[in-house]
């Protein structure tokens, strides 16, 4: 006996409804597991740490030791951060944790968790490296990789997670180009570059598809300069962009986000202010492992013509990198 048309229509409707709901659930789950968007900023705020050298925690919550010039500088830095809204900030020359926490509470409404590190050696307190991460991201670990070859500078390594997306941020401040004898600086930076690549390799040995973002102040320009020639070492930027060869022979590409995706200024160049001092290009870079490069969306330099008073805060300009799935 054949089913009535009404029952057949009802069954068909229920089947279609189940298919629709299953599809909807799959789409929702995929959205939840997607990266969404992660914005990372690298910013050297230049010499702010000198205001508090040797006296960690010398600033009270009211900022008693800060003068008018300090506040003007921090207002510019905060203005950039509040406009760009990065999720993660690698902030160089930032002073100790107490000052960074004060800056976060006073100027950024306490949106970030903060860390500050100094790579101590026998001659100096070291130049601080700060990390700021928005509170909706999970930070699994943050460590300072210290090495004698880094003198007063260092590398901060942070394992960060948003939803199901995990990435490692390796944040650096390499030796300046200031030197007493030609080639000294390049020789130190060559050792620092080797150390940095070793750290990247260790991460990739565990997972060749790992999402790794390397950023910071490399104090170097592309091309082999006179310092590198005198030290008889290769171009640091060329070294950094070489593939990493793992123990099993696998080669993992390293991409230069800064140089491969050139965000030029109004003169059609990467920022040239540094040409008055050391080199014809800025010193701040992003590099990406193959895994992270698959999520690359955009790289943006915040140029002086875009942001009033930017150069009053630092002779470095901030760089912002976006990772995402759309």
UniProtKB/TrEMBL annotation:
GO MF, one term, reads: catalytic activity
Pfam families assigned: Exo_endo_phos_3
InterPro entries attached to this UniProt entry: Endo/exonu/phosph_ase_sf (IPR036691), Endo/exonuclease/phosphatase (IPR005135)
Q: Could you tell me which residue ranges the Endonuclease/exonuclease/phosphatase domain spans?
A: 70-233
Q: What is this protein called?
A: Endonuclease/exonuclease/phosphatase domain-containing protein
